[in-house]
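To whoever picks this up:

The parser on our side crashed when reading a file containing two proteins. I've narrowed it down to the boundary between the first structure block and the second sequence. Both blocks are reproduced below exactly, byte for byte. First block:
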Amino acid sequence: QVQLVESGGGLVQPGGSLRLSCAASGSMFSFYDMAWYRQAPGKTRELVATITRRESTDYEDSVKGRFTISRDNSKNTVYLQMNSLKPEDTAVYYCNAGQYSGKYYPAYWGQGTQVTVSS
């Protein structure tokens, strides 16, 4: 089992940047594919970005060119660098450890961190 703890959320103005971090417990981190999801009020949770064990990445269309997912296996941590933030990026962001096989299969969830983009 993997326990995930997100941090780095907060309030930022449109056009600003934030970096989210997700620290994983256990020694199996490098064996998992990782992902970030988000859920805005009244909306379903959506997949934002994925990074495989081999560090292949993929992004939801609305964040391409603005968000970057990365991982540091030596620190058991996955990151989401978010630039050029827009009000529509406002959501609770969740880290996930799972498996990517043609599509991403979520397994373990963090508790989420709030990101609010507003002037």
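<<boundary where parser fails>>
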Amino acid sequence: QVLLVESGGGLVQAGGSLRLSCEVTGTVFFRQAMRWYRQAPGKEREWVASITSDKVAFYADSVKGRFTIARDNAENTVHLQMNSLKPEDTAIYYCNTVSTITGGDHWGQGTQVTVST
């Protein structure tokens, strides 16, 4: 069973930083592309960042230059370093992967990030 467990969310003032982590079990992590999404209240879930198995990163325009996605294959973990946070970054952040073995789409339970003014 593929499990994704996020951690690291919290309350931070605008301009501050947070580092999210997502630990993955039940799959061959180093082969998986990993993604972060977020969902703000009353809005649809949106893609934030991705990292390939080759550690190539991609970002939504809204976070480019402020967020950094990275992976630690030894720890089966993907991180999202979020700097210069803005109130509009407030959302539940979800970790996601599509299994290269089964094709299954797997999500974590989410972690709340709240940025105050």
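After patching the parser it read the second block fine. The two ends are 40 Å apart (CA to CA). The chain has no helices and eleven strands.
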